[in-house]
Amino acid sequence: MLYNMADLLSVAYENNFAVGSYNVANSEFVEVVIEAAEKKNAPAIIQIHPNELGLIGENFIAYVRQAIDRTKIPMAIHVDHGATLADCVRGIHNGYSSVMIDASSKPWDENVALTKKVVEVAHAAGVSVEAELGTIGSNELSTENNGVNKIMYTDPDDAKKFVELTGVDTLAVAIGTRHGQYSHVEKPELRMDLLAKINEAVNIPLVLHGGSDNKDSEIGKAYQHGVAKINLSTDMKLAFMEQLRQNFKDNPDAYEPDQLMPSARQAAQNLVEHKMNLFNSTGKASFYKI
After folding, report:
1. DSSP symbols for 248-264
2. 193 in active site
3. Integer Cα distance of 73 and 76 in angstroms
4. How high is the pLDDT of residue 40?
5. Given this model, what pLDDT does residue 140 score?
6. Pairing mode of beta strands 19-23, 128-133
7. What pLDDT, on the 0 to 100 scale, is given for residue 220?
8. Closest Cα partner for 100 from 124, 113, 84?
9. Exposed, middle or buried by CB within 10 Å (0-12, 13-18, 19+), for 174?
10. Average pLDDT, consecutive stretches of 10 residues, N- to C-terminus, the chain (290 residues)
């Protein structure tokens, strides 16, 4: 069942759990997320980065919407890291229930102005908006090339002012995470003290980007400090691809999808189910009115 992101996350925010938001770039990953959500009775978000949309095409969104309409699990479809107003408008026209405008690398005034404009357009269409303040780290293997090498932490006072000026529904904050794997960079310690201060300063659900390859103990604490959405891409894709590579190694002459895909999809689903437990979202679909 398709939900507006603000409605989906408000329940998580009020009940101290986080909803996983999973990047998909083909139908295999859509099925992974939905089947895991149904098995764990956990709300979930399917998100698509502009780079991924360029790979799969806009017609793919109709398939995602239909798949979500067929499940009783509360879910949202989200534009991940839209860089422009046009990215967000395209998402609204294609049927997303949430968009992200990421102007975090721009000067303060430009970030505020662009975010405020997206909020105005999206809210008129009944679509929620996520924005970002501070900068999330990245590495050379991440598709999310809007990340930076040096993390600029979110200031709690700035966060409060930004939310008041823009009217965003959710805010992605920088507390030390990076997009992608940490194997090529130093693995940071997440600033839970900073997260707690940001949560005290604002009264909307917070978002944690770069949810892969972090310590379970740290990620498991995030929802206790206002994080209601945790993005996940790399861990899920790695689980799938590692099993797929093994399948090709074990069956070098295989060419039929049913010889290669089911076990790879299951490996990714196992990882997503683990994350749902970690995010404390398992069983929480029952918290929503269907």
Report:
1. HHH-TT--SHHHHHHHH
2. no
3. 10
4. 98
5. 45
6. unpaired
7. 79
8. 84
9. buried
10. 97 97 96 98 96 92 97 98 96 97 95 98 98 71 49 92 98 80 56 95 94 73 94 95 97 94 98 96 93
User: Is the torsion defined by CA of 199, 203, 208, 214 positive or negative?
Assistant: positive
Q: What angle do CA 244, 247, 248 make, to 5 degrees?
A: 90
Q: Which amino acid is at 22?
A: Y
Is 195 within 8 Å of 216 (Cβ atoms)?
Answer: no
* Rounded Cα–Cα distance for residues 99 and 78 (Å): 5
Q: What pTM was computed for the model?
A: 0.91
Residue type, 225: H
Whole-Å CA distances, 243 to 23, 25, 102, 230: 18, 17, 33, 24
pLDDT value of position 150? 61
Tell me the C-alpha distance between 17 and 20, whole Å: 10
User: Of 7, 69, 80, 155, which residue is the catalytic one?
Assistant: 80
CA–CA dist 97, 78 (Å, integer): 6
Number of domains in the chain: 1
pLDDT of residue 216: 80
| 3-state class (DSSP) for residue 135 | strand
Q: What is the pLDDT of residue 136?
A: 63
Give the whole-angstrom CA distance, residue 174 versus residue 159: 11
User: What per-residue confidence (pLDDT) applies to 221?
Assistant: 85
- Say which amino acid occupies 266: Q
Report the pLDDT value the prediction gives residue 56, as an integer from 0 to 100.
93
The whole domain housing 208 covers 5-287
Buried b (16+ CB within 10 A) or exposed e, 253-271: eeeeeeebbeebbebbbeb
Q: Return the amino acid letter for 136.
A: I
Residue type (1 letter), 33: V
CATH of the domain at 80: 3.20.20.70
